[in-house]
Model the fold of this input.
Amino acid sequence: MTTGLRVALIGTGFMGKAHSHAWRTAPRFFDLPLAPTMSVIVGTDPERTAAAAERYGWAESSTDWRAVVERDDIDVVDICSPGDTHAEIAVAALAAGKHVLCEKPLANSLHDARVMTDAAAAASGQVALCGFSYRQTPALALARELIAAGRIGTVRHVRAQYLQDWLTDPEAPATWRLDRERAGSGALGDIGAHSIDTAQWLTGSAIAEVSAVLRTLVTERPTRTEVVGLGGIGDRDAPRVPVTVDDAGAFTARFSDGALGVFEFSRMATGRRNANRIEINGDRGAIAFDFERMNELEVYDVADEAGVQGFRRVQATEAQHPYLEAWWPVGHGLGYEHTFTHEIVDLVRAIAGEPSATPDFADALQVQQVLAAVEQSDQDQGRRTAVEATT
Ligand SMILES: NC(=O)c1ccc[n+]([C@@H]2O[C@H](COP(=O)([O-])OP(=O)(O)OC[C@H]3O[C@@H](n4cnc5c(N)ncnc54)[C@H](O)[C@@H]3O)[C@@H](O)[C@H]2O)c1
Done:
């Protein structure tokens, strides 16, 4: 009989919904070594949290994460609350002997990320992963396999953009994502962090040095909010508060293996909804990906016959592609929610001792170090800034 795994999820918003779906779906489509139980969901408002429990399928609701992480009948704590809560919850959960999945970026500061990584290292037999969920996109996992197998040769260029447009309207309200105290940074930590993680994971090489510029393009926004998706509708008559994070930014990077990187991230890129793109050029080939066409990977191979060379469009929906064994006949694509289901599959397998799932807290700390170097470089007018070695 399969042993159970009792889960507590913190947060009832966007990621609370995505992770709830994933916990429900993962054991129904994948053969898992442990059987998750959706025990309790934790939020801030009792009625809304109870409604979330009912809707998403959790047995109980609570507004007290401290009490929940101490419970003997909880094995896993899944943190889906804003960045300012990550460190305190993760450290308490690890100290209480729980496995932890923490949303990205790992923390709001390098200091907190270090404390969390130390707590994970000190925990014995516990798994601690960070939710850089694009790693679990089949087309990107395929890209990683191809690059690791040498299919594009030595990597020379990494070109990454993560472009959204939900802050284009200057009247969009100031949610927690625009408050440095709560979010740590703006587009940089929210979406740029994904590009940094993806680029380093795909290439197997760390970013060693950056030169950056960050900009806040709309400096104050209305407070009153009707939250719709990530942004919402502001009230023109409401008091305005300063925006204390970046709206957009860019940096160039030198990877430790010598490759050149160019990164751009914005939540004001009009017309781009969730264009998480990456192109990597090696001396024997290249790959290109755009999450807006998430089932496709473009692959270029210099060994192709002259005259018919060009990027070919591979649909990452074949049974042999990563994670596809559980899903549909070839060509019947997957969606955003599948990446989270795969994340839960990896987590549950790691808890059962199966081959390593990523990214762990140490990987996420390394991303945090790049974020810190980008902010430092921007403060120093774009000066080339070394990324601290992870020690
Ligand atoms: N992996 C991804 O692609 C991805 C996408 C979006 C967000 N995120 C990350 O997920 C996290 C949450 O983002 P979101 O979009 O779900 O935000 P959200 O605003 O939609 O939801 C946040 C939730 O946290 C809850 N919360 C806040 N403080 C709490 C506390 N003290 N105790 C219990 N609950 C608390 C709120 O009630 C709310 O339900 C952030 O770290 C964000 O960066 C990751």
Residues 10-16, 42-44, 65, 80-83, 85, 103-104, 131, 133, 190 surround nicotinamide-adenine-dinucleotide (CB under 6 Å). The chain has a mean pLDDT of 95. The radius of gyration is 21 Å.
